[in-house]
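hey so u asked for the seq, here:
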Amino acid sequence: SSARRASVGRMRARSSAPGMLRELLPKRAAAPRMVAAPRKASLQQQAAAAFNKQQPLSPAPRGQGSLSVYRNVDGMRVDDGRYTSFKRDVRKMLGDERVIDDAVRTFAYGTDASFYRLNPQAVVRVHSEEEVVQVLSAAREHDTPVTFRAAGTSLSGQAITDSVLMKLSHNGKAWRRYKIEDEGRKVTLEPGLIGGEVNKLLAAYKKKHKCDTQYKIGPDPASIESCMIGGIVANNSSGMCCGVAQNTYHTLQDMRVVLVDGTVLDTADAASREAFAQSHAGLLAGLSNIAARVQADAPLMSLIKQKYRIKNTTGYSINALADFSPDDPIEILKRIMIGSEGTLGFVSRVTYNTVPDLPNKASAFLVFPDIEDACAATSVLRSKTKVDAVEIFDRRSLKLCGQMSEMARLCPEINKLPEDGEGAALLIECRGIDADALAASISSVCDALQSSGVPVNSASGFTPKSFREDPAEYNVFWDARKGLIPIVGGARETGSPMLLEGGAGAT
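ran it, C-alpha cells below
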C-alpha cells in the first residue's frame, strides 16, 4: 500500500467514530505539541489528543452549505482564492510543468487503487526533500492541506484528496536512491523505490558480492511488485508471508522525516537528534509523559500488547508508547510515524534491517469442508507450530480459483466441492535454511493437524505429500492469493459493494 497523507497545520487525527474529520487546519502552524490525554480516554482518543489538542469541526449536514465557501472537509475544499495563490507561489518555486491543475489530469489523479474519488485542486510533482519543505511552507501560508502519494496502490483511499496532492512517483531518478550494507543485512531507501524492486536489488547484491545469505525487506504486501517504500512505511504494510513480526514497525532501524513545520529529523544522525531535542523539547516531553503514564497503567499495557499481537493498522502505532522507554522519546516518535499515513510527517528516507530469504520453501493448498474447519486448523497451526505463513480462502474465492487451469490441476478438490455448498482452503507455507530444516517444519505442521481431528478434503491429507517444493507449482498458489481481491471484485455483480479487510497474527 503506497499512499501517504499529511495535513499542513494541525495534525489530522484518525478515528473510526462517525463524523470525525480527517483533516484540521489552522491559519498558522507551529510544531505539533504533545499533550497528555484524559485518564479514561480510549486508545485512539489518547493518540489523537497527543497530536491535536483542539476539538474537530463537524461536517455540514448533507445538502447544506455553499460550495463556494471553503471548509476543511472532504468535498468542500473549494478554491476561495487560497489554491490560486498556492499554485502561483509553487510555480515560482518549481516551474509550471510540475504543478498540474487542468481538468483532465486532476480527474485522472482523483482516484487510486481504491474505489473512492476526490479530484485534487492541484498535483505537485516534487523531486527532493528540500522541495517538500518549500511546498509545505507554501501550504501553511495559504491553508491548503496536503496529501502525499507514492504509487497509489492502497485500497482504502489514502492517496486521494480534493486539496493538494504531492506526487513522488514517476519523477525520473527522484526518490530512488538506495544503499545496501553489511552483506545485505541493512538497506537504506528513498520512498520512490518499489518493494519488489528492492528485493531484486538485494538479490543482485548477494550475487555480485558472493554473500552466503540472501536477504529481503520484511514487509510482503500482495502489491509488492507495484507499491512503493513510501506507502509501505506510511501504512505499516505487512503482507502474506511476514505476519506482524517482520512488518516495518518491527524491522525499521532509522528514518529521515520532515515535520509539518519544515523541521527535518534524521534519527541515524546524532547531531540531528540533539538539535531536534532542543528545538522540539516540548513535543518530546509530551511523548515521554504519555509513555510513562501508559507504562504505569498495567491494564492499559495489557490491552495494547493484546491489540498489537495481531495486525492492527487502524489508527496510530500507539504500541510505541508501550514498547519503548519514556527516556527515549525520539524512538517513540520514529515508531509512531510508521503507519500514520503521512498525517504526522513526510518520511523521506528509511533504513531497514532486512530478514533472511530462506532458500528452501514449500507450500500446501488444503481444502476443507467448510470455513469453520479451516479456522480450527488455523488455530492449531498458530498454537502448536511455527508455520511461516497461512492464508485462508472462502468458498467464493475457491469457485473463482477453480476456473484457473493450473489451480484446478494442482488442487482438483476445489471443483469437487458442492456447487451451492460450503468449502474453504488454507494456503500454508513452511521454510527452512536447508532441506532438513524444511522437512522438520513440514513434519511439525502435519503432526499438529493430524492430531487435531479437523477433517480435510485434500486427497493427500495432512501429510508431506501435500506440500509442493517446486517454485513453478507453489507460485501458482501464491499468484492466486496475490490476485484474489481483483479476481473476486471483478466477479461481483456490477454496482454491488466490495468490503475489504485483512488480518495477520504474530509468528
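Confidence is low (pLDDT under 50) at residues 1-66. The two ends are 22 Å apart (CA to CA).
lmk if thats what u needed
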